[in-house]
Amino acid sequence: MTVHFKSTLDGPNLRGMPIVTDPKSGLRIGTNRIGSKWTPGSSGQFLRVDSPSTGEEIGYLALSTRADVGHAVEAAEAARSNIGKMGVFERAQLCMKIADEIDRRTDELARLVCLEQGKPFHSEAKDEVGGAALGFRNAAEQMKWLETAAFPLADANKRAFSFLQPKGVLAIITPWNFPLALPCLYYLGPALATGNTVVWVPAPTTSLIAVALMECMIDAGLPDGVINLVLGDGAEVGDEAVVHPGTHAIGFTGSSATGATIARRGAGKPLLLEMGGNGPTIVLSDADVDMAASIVGAGCFANAGQICTATERVLVHKSIHDRFVEGLVKAAEKVRMGDPFDPSTTMGPVNNAMALDKMLSHMEDAVARKADVLKGGKVAEGMPTNLYFEPTVVTGLTRDSLLNVEESFGPVAPVLTFETDEEALELAASSPYGLSAAVFTNSIKRAFFYTESLRCGIVNVNEKSCYWEPHIPAGGAAGTNSGLGRTGGRHTLVEMCDLKTMTIDITR
Prior knowledge:
By secondary structure, the chain is α/β, with parallel strands linked by helices. The chain has two domains: 66-274, 3-Layer(aba) Sandwich (Aldehyde Dehydrogenase, Chain A, domain 1); 280-471, Aldehyde Dehydrogenase, Chain A, domain 2 (3-Layer(aba) Sandwich), CATH 3.40.309. The protein contains 15 helices and 23 strands. The chain has helices at residues 66-85, 88-104, 106-117, 121-144, 181-194, 207-219, 234-243, 256-265, 289-301, 321-333, 353-368, 402-405, 421-428, 444-453, 490-495; strands at residues 13-14, 17-20, 28-30, 32-34, 37-39, 45-50, 57-63, 150-151, 158-166, 169-173, 197-201, 227-229, 249-253, 271-274, 280-283, 313-317, 372-375, 392-395, 412-418, 436-440, 458-461, 483-484, 497-505. The strands form five sheets. The chain has a seven-stranded mixed sheet, sandwiched between helices. Strands 12-11-10-13-14-22 form a six-stranded mixed sheet, sandwiched between helices. A five-stranded mixed sheet has the order 1-2-6-7-3, with helices on one face. Strand 10 (169-173), helix 5 and strand 11 form a beta-alpha-beta unit. Helix 2 (88-104) runs antiparallel to helix 5 and helix 3 (106-117) packs antiparallel against helix 6. It is globular, with a radius of gyration of 23 Å.
């Protein structure tokens, strides 16, 4: 029997998740971790968690209030002195222990990612666990070798140098598309390595995973209060973490609309924001068409398209359009949906009903504008839930189609055509986002031309738009709706520190 998720339910609900006061026994109950204690949310209510992969009830989450955030901030402030007494190498060692604990629990964590987020166990969920461990290992290694500078001075009797200090208590808000790897790579690993403390608010639809990660960190020896977990609705607990006078800086990954609200509400605090993307992939007339179609397909359908740097729209030179689209359809046909624990399954469901609703509205808009749906375009039949969406290829789109202008965040490959470089760049700029892009060409000259011309923080050449390695910088271009600052390796570490300068007169 197919389980139908709806964004509006009869009775109380939050983001499509039912609110209950009496959780069923025998299922996992996720609670806050504040200071040294696991504590339920002060609302007395819980969110019921249903698996997007199987439809089964898998647990409950405590629903917190602003008061709980206040307690978490107090715990984080109290822990600053303890983490401050740990040297860089000691913090690095702790990060390594956490990574080892994550590795030890790989199968357990991957199963939870599969059930709560929707990633297939073998093809994607286990990789995400590996990414989480890597986040702590990278932060440990890079922090140990993060150098600052001494400065030459006009006054020969003085010396000046700079050093890094933690910003303090960080408010961290993370999304549901990579609920385990992204917090570790972008925020938690770097925060611990730099000596900050954290109030962490994860997305409600994937918070059981956050609880499991907290357990790993505690078992590895994380001092009480260094990272505090608060579960609940971002509009309440996330907002309180942002505006609370006891938090000193903000890290957020998620939608552009929410990021803009956070920027306003947290005005005056340092911000590290990775927001939405609608990255264009531009396939030029001299590209290897078959190779491009295969790679673009991977960029469209990985994680069911739920990646901020996913290939959201494909701009193809008119002369190669038909051949390219034929290859893209073949890539879509290779995608396998089904049992999330079957090794042959390569794509799971979208995570939640709100995401599905958005994708369906974009498809309805495309059809209304007379676009051609060559493959997919609807909810898949015969699946355990109605959150499985067919890998989709759409052509004949107009530039004002929602699939071109907005971020769809699903397994859809929208294709538009162009004839000149000027037209391609104009189409690329028709969306307000500027996170990532890709260009396929056999010309190094054109590769550099497009890389330098596109208003994006990342441009990949002859590779999918979502290709990234954790030690290289990632972030949106200025003047777009894709964020502020840079995540990745040493760049995140620097963002989480204040650079302090000391000048000393050596004659006194």
